[in-house]
Prior knowledge:
The protein is an alpha/beta fold. It has 14 helices and twelve strands. The protein has two domains: 6-209, inorganic pyrophosphatase (n-terminal core) (Alpha-Beta Complex), CATH 3.90.1640.10; 214-338, Roll (Diaminopimelate Epimerase, Chain A, domain 1). Helix content is 43%, strand content 18%. α3 (62-65) links the parallel β2 (51-56) and β3. The two termini are 40 Å apart. The model has no long low-confidence stretch (mean pLDDT 93).
Amino acid sequence: MYQIDKDKVKKIKEIVSKSKKILITGHTNPDGDAIGSALSLFHFFNKLDIETTVVMPDEITNSTSWLVGANSILINEDNKALVSKHVAEADVIFCVDFNEPKRLKSLKDAVVASKAVKVMIDHHPQPNDFVDFTFSDTNISSASEYVYYFLKEYNNNLIDKTIAECIFLGITTDTGCFNFSSATSPTFIAAAELLAYGVDKQKILSNTFDNYSENRMRLMGYVLQEKLVVMPEQKAAYIGITKEEFEKFDYQNGDHEYFVNLALSIKNVEVSALFLEMEESVRISLRSGSDFDVNVLARKYFKGGGHKKAAGGKLYMSLVDTISRFEKAIIASMNIKNN
């Protein structure tokens, strides 16, 4: 089992004991790990009778909206004045599943300016020094797994089924149902311990992965048939989706989840990319099924970052130009790798 910094947890525990308000936040376009880690902390500190609020930069998806407490999350895009009030009044701010303030999008300035004690719990490389306490380790599968170790050290007796389900969902989604290499021996030990709290594994898997709309399924079929491009010599593949195509299938936030992983099921494809055309930019998701480092690719070409096997970025250019940049980048990168 992972050994967390006990002295650091003790200091935070002392600070929290004197605090009246706690705020928890995660990155823009929050995924299962961001929501799972945030809500597990939310339920934990509520048990200590501390006013606790979860805020996210933008909307959460159907795959996490069923979790207990999800309906209490404040979305900054919808409640800017109220969110600003909570940020300003917070004594402690927990930043989960992100390592630099720019990932907070519209929440960035308020959180950075806050005089609250800030705590980061994350697993991405190269954490930014904008907090007072940092828990960051790329060897841990997910922020949710890290939160589990944090809460166990803080007060193991307060962890219950609700908290365990939030953590389990976060771990499950960020490890691809334990399929990714990030799921290590400690991850499986943590998962087994969480199941002992009465976590309904089948309910979590069903509500998370079998809860899609008909339009989402038709969109997936369409992009696989019409938009999937394979670059066999580079062992890469990508999908690009236009704004018009989103509208055609009545796109809802999160409908594209896991699309980036689809191409990795193709034999000999080691790198996959997904390009989403937004109003003024293109969002890029990158995945690796080999030792190819997509974090380096994201940082060098797409103004982003992430993990070795999962990264992303954003460019303010056309979808066509973004895809062209990817093609040139992957050709150059694979040539370097093979030489």
